Amino acid sequence: MRFISKLSLACSVAFISGGVAMAADTVTLQLAHDVDLEHSGQKVSEFVAKEVAELSGGKMKINIYPSGQMGSTRELMEILPDRGVDMTYISAGGLESFADIYSVLTLPYIFKDKDHYNAVVWGPIGKEIMESTRDKGYVAIGAYAAGSRSFYARDPITAYEDLQGKKLRVPPSPMLVAITEAVGALPTPIAFAESYTAIQQGVVDGAENNIPSFVSTRHFEVAKYFLEDEHSSFPDYLVVSTQTLDALTEEQRGWLLQAAKDAQGYQRELWEQMETENRQTAIEAGVTFTPVDKAPFQAAVKPIVDDFKASHPQYEDLMQRIQDAAN
């Protein structure tokens, strides 16, 4: 985190506090994340930065720090409330460690199909969840498609039984750790940027993610077997410090919120295209995609859903409304 300290010191005259830099009637925000340059999170960041500059006529600028330059997902979320950075791009799985309401979205097989997912994520329920963390020092201002997550490995996996004892990289998501354990594998949290090397060197046997991330990380080069169990489907988010939002003028907030909203439509179309193209890229590189009977997976993870309901009664109504949204 020394980089952040040096940055703050060098810009101490321009900074009001934390990340927002002001000079006369201009403002510069810092957006940092730990995904790679080909990830849709970087594409969203670039879209938002460009639109903010256009809407503001150059009076508002967003500097992007990708690929973990300013820290891991956890490190960025820890400094976000105090404006050590203004914004970050993060999955619901990453957010659940900081706000357990996001665990509801990461529950295995909670969505019946894509229409159900879309109705929740971009409907009133999704907006309610995004706004719910204001008192924690941050809010999500945009929700973005992230497909379905499945397991993949270096050695052949074609059925539920093949996962038993496999050491698999998972992100620092309590729910994804629990799901991986439930299906008989050994979850191993490793930083996103380090996961390729971990698979390549056999530190882990494989990992789990969606198809575009599987390709953008180039994991398809070292893990040739993709088991399409689709155990989780949850979105990514653009998250901003509430202190940053409060420091902006109403007009500046309007530019930022409009850009984040417009990026949602752009990214959903991009995601559909990426899923199709990336699957073909992986197939041409020799990856075997195997559709599976999901029944054994659903049976294995059912206790996770039951335990969550029992230990989080405050979300009973929310979970019921999510279920009702499928009708």
Can you give a write-up of this model?
The chain has 327 residues and is of the alpha/beta class. The chain is built from 14 helices and 13 strands. The protein has helices at 2-10, 40-55, 73-79, 92-95, 103-106, 114-121, 124-131, 174-182, 195-200, 211-216, 242-247, 250-284, 295-311, 316-324, and strands at residues 15-17, 20-23, 26-32, 60-65, 87-91, 138-144, 149-153, 167-170, 186-189, 206-209, 225-232, 236-241, 288-291. A hairpin with a 2-residue loop joins strand 2 and strand 3. It is globular. One of its GO terms (molecular function) is carbohydrate binding. InterPro entries: DctP_fam (IPR018389), TRAP_DctP (IPR004682), TRAP_DctP_sf (IPR038404). It holds the Pfam family DctP. This is Tripartite ATP-independent transporter DctP family solute receptor.
List strands and helices in order, with pairings:
Blueprint: H1 2-10, E1 15-17, E2 20-23, E3 26-32, H2 40-55, E4 60-65, H3 73-79, E5 87-91, H4 92-95, H5 103-106, H6 114-121, H7 124-131, E6 138-144, E7 149-153, E8 167-170, H8 174-182, E9 186-189, H9 195-200, E10 206-209, H10 211-216, E11 225-232, E12 236-241, H11 242-247, H12 250-284, E13 288-291, H13 295-311, H14 316-324
Helix pairs in contact: 2-12
